[in-house]
Specification:
This protein is an alpha/beta fold and 251 residues long. The chain contains 9 helices and 8 strands.
């Protein structure tokens, strides 16, 4: 029987948007015996550009993952480096739940002494500051750098590759030469199209967070590992239906 993995897109997108997000995980990277499904949230955030928007991402990513175990999935992955809803879903589920921020930042820490996050715009800096603080990795951060370009979370970088890739390369070189980074982390799974380009242009490892997260997921499933319920205890009182049925009814 196939191991089913649910990957939750943190913003509402149409079928074309789902396919664009799915393209970050080529079929050849999925081991035999795995079935991967990308699923968009029903409602919620737009750009993740504020604490308001990140609260919405937390809520609706959480809602999208709540029934994953009942639906027959063996793991949940969250398709945003903000790791929205990660700890709440680990508390609610027994199956493993992964976030690309956590896996990317820890992987970068294993590959070098200092890493820089290269992202689309400054408005996402607060996402990394929160998770790096939560994971105790702030001392591993060389810098946060952006290209000050408003992201398109549905079309991603399509049609803008030549301009965007060069901007990302320039900021990456600054991170390496001026900030002391010896690893570069892409600041969003939506930036995956730039991975191969930067990997070929830069003299240090480049982390593609969505791909790294998924491969960790396979390893954990094959080793029979999941998160500690002592670290992420289940709630004594479950109010899923009360809260989300009411929320959906209002919409």
């Amino acid at each position: 029987m196939s191991k089913r993995v649910k990957i939750i897109i943190p913003v509402p997108v149409d079928s074309d948007g789902v396919e664009n997000r799915r393209s970050q995980l080529p079929e050849e990277w999925i081991r035999p015996g795995y079935e991967v499904e990308f699923v968009s949230v029903k409602n919620g955030a737009s750009l993740g550009d504020s604490y308001y928007d990140t609260l919405l991402m937390d809520m609706f990513v959480f809602e999208a993952g709540l029934k994953a175990e009942e639906e027959g999935y063996q793991a949940v992955c969250i398709d945003t480096v903000s790791d929205s809803g990660l700890y709440a879903l680990r508390s609610r589920l027994e199956i493993p739940v992964f976030g690309p921020g956590q896996t990317a930042f820890h992987t970068a820490s294993m590959l070098g002494h200092k890493f820089s996050v290269i992202t689309m715009w400054d408005e996402w800096f607060h996402l990394y500051q929160k998770t790096l603080n939560d994971y105790g990795l702030k001392d591993k951060l060389a810098s946060l750098r952006s290209i000050n370009t408003r992201p398109d979370l549905s079309e991603l970088l399509s049609g803008k590759e030549e301009i965007i890739f060069e901007k990302l390369e320039r900021e990456s070189w600054k991170a390496i030469e001026e900030d002391g980074a010896d690893v570069i982390v892409l600041g969003s799974t939506t930036m995956h199209q730039s991975y191969q380009y930067l990997k070929e242009k830069l003299p240090v490892p480049v982390i593609n967070p969505g791909l790294v997260m998924y491969k960790y997921c396979e390893v954990y499933l094959e080793l029979g590992l999941t998160h500690s319920k002592k670290a992420f205890p289940s709630p004594e009182i479950n109010k899923d239906e009360v809260v989300f049925n009411s929320l959906m009814h209002q919409n």
